[in-house]
């Protein structure tokens, strides 16, 4: 291995997790780091998802860093363009651009046990790093199902996270595949412009009204002049969300009232009993993510929309065929079919101590890591938004900041240990943490609600969500417990014997 540029920390990804890690490193006094980004600008999922109607379903003041409040959010639920602009602002204010390397997709990361560092190969060159922070996020690699005949479709095909803004949907016949968080925003945004919209719904979603409004100029002025008011607003929203956690994680029966409200919301907009029957889920609300929209149901009731209560099964030329046999002629197919969440593509590119990739290590057990951060056999490697750190009802920024606390203490421990050193999560500690998480998961609505979801892996294990409050997770990641790690040091070199 030839000599390469060496950094203390290499961060992969420049979304909320990557930029947050970069800010935290600078606040810890660490400036010897790089942020590797495969795209041409920062923003992560809020750069990639620019589809019509793209909006966050978490209130704006909670969906931002605690250390970088934004008094100028224009709406209570901000749109993609405002969130991406916020991330650009954070990048500039905290002086991160000199550390960011755009167009640098990570191809492979290999642990060097002799030198105790990572060899990182990217599309723009190679480097070595003492510590790698993987902040690629679970919503970064789109998933398009393998549909027979799709390759021969003569029209336009794209995923919601790779929206083709050069293709005009006006007057077109469009198939929308999927009914998740992206689809319920896309449908009302494009419905007035298309000639016909056919929605392929494999499983209906529970939808609640989106209580969104513009934040007035006087409100924003107060937040700018009196910053504590913005913090108070954030704390109030956070507290309400924390109180809701018990219903999801311990007492799913309490969600029946919410389910009744969702049914009434549907009944107000959908008058056709047959359509209402198609749109009514057969599982407990909360089992899948509860979606927020005030215009999704009204759009589905329009005369140019057809709801097919079945998944897309086949494409025959310009004809799309559902699993129930129904057909439609379309000019474009838009997939809102989610991402590779429980089979992270980045895991194929990380090679640990025994020569196995992270994907191989997780093949049988599913995704597992210690406190959502470190995997056994992958020293000095951490994830941000790792296994079982997702949320079903609150802001992921809260979880990210907790993991950044853990990262900061991880680096402090390495400094205290001194010399060339690495920390490798003990396999028994990882198992113990995962067993506790999975034991708590058994009583949650995500496991008892009668649905399958993208929270679960191919074996039915929920390796995505955290079965507790954000406050609990923050306490669990406040400090690194060295008893949960093996301390690795550079092997002592044998003296060279010189013959007489």
Give a structural overview:
By secondary structure, the protein is an alpha/beta fold. It is built from 14 helices and 20 strands. Helix content is 30%, strand content 18%. Strands 1, 2, 3, 4, 5, 6, 17 and 18 form an 8-stranded mixed sheet that branches. A 5-stranded parallel sheet has the order 7-16-8-9-12, with no helix packed on it. Strands 13-14-15 form a 3-stranded antiparallel sheet, with no helix packed on it. Helix 1 (16-27) links the parallel strand 1 (5-12) and strand 2 (33-36). The longest helix has 23 residues, at 227-249. The protein is globular, with a radius of gyration of 24 Å. The two termini are 33 Å apart.
Provide a brief overview of the structure:
This protein has helices at residues 16-27, 45-48, 80-93, 183-190, 217-225, 227-249, 256-269, 273-279, 296-300, 358-361, 396-417, 427-441, 445-448, 470-476, and strands at 5-12, 33-36, 100-101, 106-112, 117-122, 125-134, 156-159, 173-177, 196-200, 207-208, 291-292, 305-308, 312-316, 319-322, 327-329, 332-335, 350-351, 381-383, 421-425, 485-489.
Mean model confidence by pLDDT: 95
| Amount of beta strand | 15-25%
Low-confidence stretches: none
Helix content: 25-40%
Distance between the termini: 33 Å
Annotate the secondary structure layout.
Blueprint: E1 5-12, H1 16-27, E2 33-36, H2 45-48, H3 80-93, E3 100-101, E4 106-112, E5 117-122, E6 125-134, E7 156-159, E8 173-177, H4 183-190, E9 196-200, E10 207-208, H5 217-225, H6 227-249, H7 256-269, H8 273-279, E11 291-292, H9 296-300, E12 305-308, E13 312-316, E14 319-322, E15 327-329, E16 332-335, E17 350-351, H10 358-361, E18 381-383, H11 396-417, E19 421-425, H12 427-441, H13 445-448, H14 470-476, E20 485-489
Helix pairs in contact: 1-11, 5-6, 11-14
């Amino acid at each position: 291995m030839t000599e390469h540029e060496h950094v203390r920390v290499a961060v992969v990804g420049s979304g909320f997790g990557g930029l947050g890690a970069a800010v935290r490193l600078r606040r810890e006094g660490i400036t010897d780091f790089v942020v590797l980004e495969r795209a041409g600008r920062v923003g992560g999922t809020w750069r990639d998802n620019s589809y019509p109607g793209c909006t966050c379903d978490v209130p704006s003041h909670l969906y931002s860093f605690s250390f970088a409040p934004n008094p100028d959010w224009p709406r209570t639920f901000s749109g993609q363009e405002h969130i991406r602009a916020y991330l650009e602002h954070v990048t500039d204010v905290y002086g991160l651009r000199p550390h960011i390397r755009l167009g640098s997709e990570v191809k492979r990361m290999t642990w060097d046990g002799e030198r105790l560092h990572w060899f990182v190969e990217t599309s723009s060159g190679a480097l070595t790093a003492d510590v790698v922070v993987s902040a690629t996020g679970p919503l970064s690699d789109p998933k398009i199902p393998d549909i027979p005949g799709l390759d021969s479709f003569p029209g336009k095909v794209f995923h919601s996270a790779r929206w083709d803004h050069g293709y005009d949907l006006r007057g077109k016949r469009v198939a929308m595949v999927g009914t998740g968080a992206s689809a319920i925003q896309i449908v009302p945004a494009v419905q007035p412009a298309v000639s016909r919209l056919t929605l392929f719904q494999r499983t209906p979603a529970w939808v609640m009204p989106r209580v969104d409004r513009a934040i007035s100029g006087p409100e924003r002025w107060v937040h700018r002049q009196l910053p504590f008011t913005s913090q108070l607003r954030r704390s109030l929203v956070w507290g309400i969300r924390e109180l809701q956690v018990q219903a999801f994680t311990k007492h799913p029966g309490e969600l029946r009232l919410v389910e009744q409200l969702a049914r009434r919301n549907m009944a107000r907009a959908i008058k056709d009993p047959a359509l209402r029957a198609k749109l009514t889920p057969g599982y407990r609300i909360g089992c899948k993510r509860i979606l927020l929209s005030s215009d999704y149901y009204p759009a589905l009731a329009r005369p140019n929309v057809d709801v097919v209560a079945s998944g897309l099964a086949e494409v025959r030329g310009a004809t799309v065929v559902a699993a129930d046999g129904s057909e439609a002629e379309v000019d474009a197919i838009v997939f809102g079919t989610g991402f590779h969440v429980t089979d992270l593509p980045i895991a194929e590119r990380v090679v640990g101590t025994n020569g196995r990739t992270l994907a191989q290590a997780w093949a049988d057990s599913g995704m597992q890591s210690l406190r959502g951060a470190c995997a056994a056999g992958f020293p000095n490697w951490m994830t941000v938004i790792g296994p079982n750190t997702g949320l079903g009802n609150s802001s992921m920024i809260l979880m990210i900041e907790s993991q950044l606390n853990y990262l900061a203490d991880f680096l402090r421990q390495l400094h205290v240990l001194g010399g060339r050193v690495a920390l490798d999560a003990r396999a028994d500690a990882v198992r113990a943490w995962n067993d506790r998480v999975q034991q708590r998961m058994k009583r949650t609505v995500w496991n008892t609600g009668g649905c399958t979801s993208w929270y679960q892996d191919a074996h039915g294990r929920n390796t995505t969500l955290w079965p507790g409050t954000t406050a609990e997770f923050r306490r669990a990641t406040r400090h690194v417990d060295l008893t949960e790690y093996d301390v690795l040091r550079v092997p002592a070199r044998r003296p060279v014997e010189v013959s007489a």
